[in-house]
Amino acid sequence: MDTKYVKKILKDTAYIRTGGSKEEKKCAEYLRKRCEELGAKAWIEEFTVQAADGLRCSLKADGREIDCLGYKNCGSWDVEGKLYYMPNTDRYSLSEAKGKIVLIDTGVTHAAFSDLYDAGAKGIITYSGDANNPADVCIDHKELRGFISEGKKLPCVHVHTRDAVELVESGAKKVSISIAQNEYEENSRNVVAYLKGKRKESIVLSAHYDSTPLSLGSYDNMSGCIGLLGVLDELKDIKPLYSLYFVFCGSEERGLLGSKAYCASHEKELEDVVLNVNLDMIGTYMGGFLACVTAEQALVDYIRYFAAIEGFGMKAKQGVYSSDSTPFADKGVPALSFARLADDTIAPIHNVFDTPAVMSPERTVADTAFIAKFVRTMACAGTCPVSRNIPDNMKEELDYYLNRKRRPDA
Ligand SMILES: [Zn+2]
Known about the structure:
Layout: H1 3-12, H2 22-37, E1 41-61, E2 64-66, E3 69-70, E4 77-85, H3 91-95, E5 100-103, H4 110-118, E6 123-128, H5 146-149, E7 156-160, H6 161-169, E8 174-195, E9 202-208, H7 218-235, E10 243-249, H8 257-265, E11 273-279, E12 288-294, H9 297-310, E13 315-318, H10 325-330, E14 335-341, H11 361-379, H12 392-401
Parallel strand pairs: 4-5, 5-6, 6-7, 9-10, 9-11, 11-14, 12-13
Antiparallel strand pairs: 1-2, 1-8, 3-7, 4-8, 8-10, 12-14
The chain binds zinc ion (ZN).
């Protein structure tokens, strides 16, 4: 893989491709073709996601119209209440939320939603965007995720940070929210490519190809998809011992839905998966390289040694990375995510600034070459040395991340 190839893929996929959209489908077909072009067998696996259209939304504060977008799949509503800005989530703060429309600083997380629902809040306002960047004007389009709300609904609207600040500054008293939408289900999809090894056991590589509603998703995460294509290109002729699956996941940005669907529909085969290597954001000009390992500490230490021997600067640590490695680890597959993490002021994600311009084709090639060496070593190992046991500290982190347990301090 060379820089020309990186530039071509970035250019060809420079469009918004949210999970379940026709653009996501177009990109899935595109990636399937690229895999076949490299000589791999490749196919598409569909799964169902929530969808909404015909969305209309209005937010009024003391009669003034505020620019907003209603959350997809939060239902249709007409509500009115006192505005309550709630920067903290302690018991006292929550006790004041009853019957009010609550502006919060966090997104609609599982904890925020269930707390506000139980406290009797009438609605939720969230915000994002850089208030001090005049070029940052768009409002992100959020959704009420099924696994967050667990079937309950509240009217939720999203505004730009500038308007959120203005609501607080002006001391707005009464707000009303009106939302109308049609909710249904549609298909999202994973693209799977396969290189046959000598053994039944396999290594699954993954990278999501969907984007958020405002983003071209070049860094997050066409870069990781290019990495996967580069690894495929590098390993297609080596006849590995372990079979290799390359899974380009859809709907990651909607809550890891593609990798969750893959793990659910391949539950039996996962018993023969010795490792998941996930790529989410590589190849920027700036930022350190990280391996976040949801497996035994020995793998962290091994990656550190391996990188030093290969002459590749990086950091490795144990942890749960907010990406498609997590559902694999949760099914007991040792998993890790590779990423090059640029500062938010240089290569921000989930907004209009994530474009091919933030990507370094040279760095993408170099990052991919390192990842390919690592995968080749594992794929050709006499036996994959990584223990199938996910250690207790990682199991606990998975419980927190997947909302089965609440952090003591949250
Ligand atoms: Zn991502």
